[in-house]
Design brief:
12% of the residues lie in helices and 39% in strands. By secondary structure, it is mainly β. It has helices spanning 2-26, 34-37, 82-85, 151-154, 325-328; strands spanning 39-47, 61-67, 70-76, 89-94, 101-104, 109-113, 119-126, 139-141, 161-167, 177-181, 184-188, 194-205, 212-218, 223-231, 234-239, 254-259, 279-288, 309-317, 330-337. The protein contains five helices and 19 strands. The radius of gyration is 29 Å and the shape is elongated.
């Protein structure tokens, strides 16, 4: 009983203290004054999930208008991933009595903190579902699959897109083994002279505004590489290093962007007759040659290159945005200044 008496007594005293304290706190709760958040804001820094941190947010401006009843938020000059994170225009309303939380019409709630006359921080979570790929506007394969993915069997595409994993030659019809490692395609070379991977678009893609193929790559020394394409009634082929440069033997990934509307400058190459308005497909063709300048077979195709690895990522036709579900979903913090 003694212990219970002590607790009961303590509870009474604590309750009395809380009653007095709550009365004091009620008078000091800070309420956001709406006029303080209104105006034109610039982005001073962004804390972002995943690879979206690499996006350039420094040019984004955010304008907030309205009253205690709500208003409109607009943003401009953001990066590729800007719109799903900070809409170009959205109504907003307060969601609490202290006006420290505002809700957008996409069901994202943004917490206001650090508010002064010329600074404010917005914190929020985005759960973004990337729209289904539209095969008429471009193509992007960023290989955001788990490492245990069976590439040949598990990776599928929307209707109208047909792909070919490494196609070989008479030495090895398989063309090599393909797997996923750390979000990249790994192509393990087997006994082939030249092999190819590619995608075809049954209905054609209009890439005339951005007639490019870009991709990240890591290729061994001695790799010979070309891109075969076809569109409309024509076809064409571009070659490295005549038409574009590749860095071979690097320790990490590099990026290349190729203008598919060009004709090859390689001696003896046929003119490029591929239509960019009706682009039907492309193949990336690779072969391995002997890279040793002191070898009698220097520069010659290796009939047995088993074990050599080629890495690819972000294979992009038509300049499709690299903004993905993985790079947008998560916790965001925007530090703003006037």
């Amino acid at each position: 009983m003694k212990k219970i008496t002590y607790l009961f007594t303590t509870t009474i005293l604590l309750s009395s203290f809380l009653f007095v304290s709550c009365s004091d706190d009620d008078d000091t709760d800070e309420v956001v004054v709406t006029s303080s958040i209104l105006g034109n804001w610039t982005v001073s820094s962004v804390t972002a999930p995943s690879d979206a941190t690499a996006q350039d947010w420094s040019n984004m401006t955010i304008s907030i208008t309205g009253s205690d009843a709500g208003g409109t938020l607009t943003s401009s000059d953001g990066p590729d991933c800007g719109v799903p994170v900070m809409p170009e225009t959205t109504p907003w309303i307060y969601t609490d009595d202290t006006n420290t939380m505002i809700s957008r019409d996409d069901d994202v709630n943004m917490s206001i903190s650090g508010l002064t006359d010329n600074a404010m921080t917005l914190s929020f979570n985005v759960n973004y579902n990337f729209p289904a790929l539209d095969p008429t506007k471009g193509f992007l394969e960023s290989f955001t699959y788990s490492d245990d993915t069976n590439v040949r069997e598990d990776i599928t595409y929307p209707e109208g897109i047909v792909n070919e994993w490494p196609m070989g030659d008479a030495n090895d019809e398989n063309g090599g083994n393909v797997s996923i490692s750390d979000g990249k395609l790994v192509w393990e070379y087997t006994k082939v002279l030249e092999a190819a991977i590619g995608w075809e678009f049954d209905n054609g893609i209009n890439i005339s505004e951005s007639p490019t193929l870009s991709f990240d790559y890591q290729l061994p020394l001695g790799t010979i590489f070309s891109v075969y394409m076809f569109g409309g009634e024509g076809e064409g082929q571009l070659f490295a290093p005549d038409d574009f440069n590749l860095i071979l033997g690097a320790d990490g990934m590099n990026e290349v962007s190729i203008n598919l509307s060009n004709s090859s400058v390689k001696e003896g190459a046929d003119p490029n007759g591929s239509s960019m308005e009706e682009f039907y497909g492309f193949y990336m063709i690779a072969g391995l040659t002997d890279p040793d300048p002191n070898s009698s077979t220097f520069g010659q195709l290796l009939p047995d290159a088993e074990g050599s690895l080629l890495h690819f990522d972000n294979i992009n036709i038509g300049g499709v945005s690299l903004c993905t579900e993985a790079s947008v979903s998560g916790d965001w913090t925007f530090s703003l200044t006037k």
